Amino acid sequence: MSETLILTKRWGKPNSASIASYRDDGGYRTLQKALSMEPAAIVDEVKKSNLRGRGGAGFATGLKWTFLPKDVRPRYLTVNADESEPGTFKDRYIIEHDPHQLIEGIAITAWALDIHLAYVYIRGEFAKQARILEKAIEEARAAGILGPALLGKAGFDLDVHVHRGAGAYICGEESALLESLEGKKGYPRLKPPFPAVVGLWGKPTIINNVETIANVPWIVENGGAAFAALGTGKSGGTRLFCVSGHVNRPGVYEKPVHYNLKTLIMEDCGGIVGGRKVKAVIPGGSSAPVLSADEIDVSMEFDALKAAGTMAGSGGVIVFDDSTCLVRALARICKFYAEESCGQCTPCREGTSWMEGICERLEHGHATAADVEKLDQLAGNIGGQTICALGDAAAMPVQSFVKKFKAEFLRHAELRGCPFGEHAWGLDQSSREAVVGPVRY
Amino acid sequence: MNASTAPVSGELPREQVERFDHELALVLKRYPPDRKAAAMLPALHLGQEIFGFCSPEVQRLCADRLGTSPARAEEVATFYVMYHTAPIGRHLVEVCTNVSCCLTGGERIFERLKAKLAVKNGGTTADGKITLREVECLGACGTAPAMLVDDEMHERLDERRVEEILGRLA
C-alpha cells in the first residue's frame, strides 16, 4: 500500500521551491478552483476534513475559522512560523522545500475568510527560510497570484508579508505573536477575547501554524472527507512527526495523524543508536509530559495521546536511551523555560528558575528527597496559574518526569550526586543519517 | 521625552542614517500606513545590521522614524535575544545546547569552544573576532547538534566540523 503524502511529496525535487516547478506539478490550480467556489463551501470542506492545528494545541481549524465575527472588517490572517518548541523542526522544511504550497494555502484561506492582508511570523533565527519565503512571495506576486485581483478575480486582493521575530520562544504563543507583530515585546494577552474576535490591531485575526495552512490546498482539491479518511476519529490527514535524540535515523516523517509512536521510533527511525533500549520519550515537543518505555506503543493522534496522559503537541518526538540521566535532561528542559519565561506572571517568572535550580542541585549532589517533593509541588503551583500556556508547558515535563522516574530522582538525593556520572553527552554522527521526507542529510 | 523632540541620530554617521532611511522605507510598505510602529522589529534588525548594534542612539532613531516612544524601542531591543545593546565581535557564534543538541554533543561543543576561545558564555575573544554564546532550540533537532554563525545555520556538527567552520572566519 502506498502512503498518501501531502506535505512532503515534492521535497527534494530540483528547484522544488520555485514557482515554475510548483506549477509544473499542478500547483496553484487548486487556488483557481477555490476562487470559483463559494467561500463558505471552502470553510465547510475544512470543517469536514477534521484538520486540527499542527502548532501544538490541536484545535479544530474549521471551527476556529467560524469564530470570526460576521460583520467586522478588516480581518487578518497570521501564519505562525515561529517554530521554537524544542524537538520541533518541520515548518522550516515546508518553507525550504515547498514554500508555494504554503502560499497557495494562504491565498485559499484568505479567499475563504474574506481576508486581504496576511503575515507570516517567522522566527528571527530562520534567516535563510525568511529569504526563501520572501522570494517565493515575490514570484507569486509577479505571476499575478498575489496582489490586486489575484488570478483575475475582480475584487479579491491579497498582500502577504514576512515578519521576522528576533529570538523569543514566547512569540509562538498566539497573543504574544500578535504583540510582536505590532512591534512590541512578546507579552501574552489575557484571553478571552480570543484573537479570532480581537486580534491584530484589535481586529479579528486567524492564526494558524505553517503546516496547518499548507494542508489547505490538498483539502480543497480532494475534499474534506478524503482528508478525514486519512486519519481517525476527530483528527484527519497526515502529520509531520519530527524525531530527534538517540535514534539511528532522526528526521521528519510524514505519517497518518494516528501513526504508532513505537513503530515510528523502532522501524522508521531504525531503533536506538548502538542497539540500546528506549528509556523515555517526549512525544510532542518538550512541553509534553514524558512517556516511559512501556507506554510508547500508542497512537500519536491528539485524543489518543491525551488519553495516555500526554499530548501530541507540535509533533516533536524526543527519544532518550537507557544510558540517559533524566534528572540532567529535565534540568536542561527547566533551564529552557526559565530562559524563555517572559516574566509577566509571578508563578512562571519565579517558579521556572527555581525548578531549574532544584534539578541542578539534585544532579550535582546538593539536594535532598524533600527537594524532590518541592520540585513537584512547585510545578503544581505554576500550572494553570498564568496568563498563557508557558506556565503549564514548564510544569508538565517536571510533574511527569518526577512521577514516572521518581526512583531516579530520589537516588540522586540519596547518593548526593548523579549515578550516571557527569560524562559529556554525545553521539558519533558518522553512523547516523537524518531523514527529512525523501531527503537525506 | 516626546518622540518628536527627542534628539535623533546626532551621534550616528549621516551616510549610514541615509541608508537606514532608504531601506526602512521599503520595510514600511509591508504595514498599513497608520501602523508604522509595527515595524519596530524589522527596524531594529536593520539598525543592528547597519550600525553594528542597537545602541541607545539606534533605538531612538527607530522610535523617531516609526513615530513611537524611545521606551518602546528599548523595550523591544532588550526583550529579544537577537538584538545586541552593546558591541559584539566581528562574528557571532551561537551554539544550541537544548535537549536534542545536548544528547548528541552540543554541550560538549560549547564547553570546548569556551575553552578554546578563552571566553565565558556571551564573551568576546580578546582580538574582537568572535562572540560566543549558548542559545536555545534552533529548530534543527533532527540534524543536531547545531549552531548559528552570523545568521548561517550549521548542522550535524562534530568537533572537526566546528574547527573547520571557525577556521574559515576572517
Fold and architecture overview:
- The complex is a heterodimer of chains A (441) and B (170).
- By secondary structure, chain A is of the alpha/beta class.
- Chain A folds into three domains: 19-230, Rossmann fold (3-Layer(aba) Sandwich), CATH 3.40.50.11540; 238-321, Ubiquitin-like (UB roll) (Roll), CATH 3.10.20.600; 326-415, NADH-ubiquinone oxidoreductase 51kDa subunit, iron-sulphur binding domain (de novo design (two linked rop proteins), Up-down Bundle).
- Chain A contains 18 helices and eleven strands.
- Chain A has helices at residues 19-24, 29-35, 39-49, 61-66, 91-97, 99-113, 127-142, 174-181, 210-214, 216-222, 224-230, 261-268, 302-307, 326-340, 346-363, 369-382, 390-404, 406-415; strands spanning 76-81, 117-122, 159-164, 205-209, 238-245, 251-256, 278-282, 291-292, 316-321, 435-436, 439-440.
- In chain A, strands 8-7-9-5-6-10-11 form a seven-stranded mixed sheet, covered by helices on one side. In chain A, strands 3-2-1-4 form a four-stranded parallel sheet, with helices on both faces.
- Chain A is globular and about 75 Å long.
- The model of chain A has no long low-confidence stretch (mean pLDDT 97).
- The radius of gyration of chain B is 18 Å and the shape is elongated.
- Chain B is of the alpha+beta class and 170 residues long.
- Chain B has two domains: 3-79, Arc Repressor Mutant, subunit A (Orthogonal Bundle), CATH 1.10.10; 91-167, Glutaredoxin (3-Layer(aba) Sandwich).
- In chain B, a hairpin with a 2-residue loop joins strand 3 (147-149) and strand 4 (152-154).
- Chain B has a four-stranded mixed sheet, covered by helices on one side.
- Mean pLDDT of chain B is 94; it is low at 1-7.
- In chain B, helix 1 packs antiparallel against helix 2.
- Chains A and B meet through strand 3, strand 5, strand 9, helix 14 and strand 10 of A and helix 2, helix 4, helix 5 and helix 6 of B.
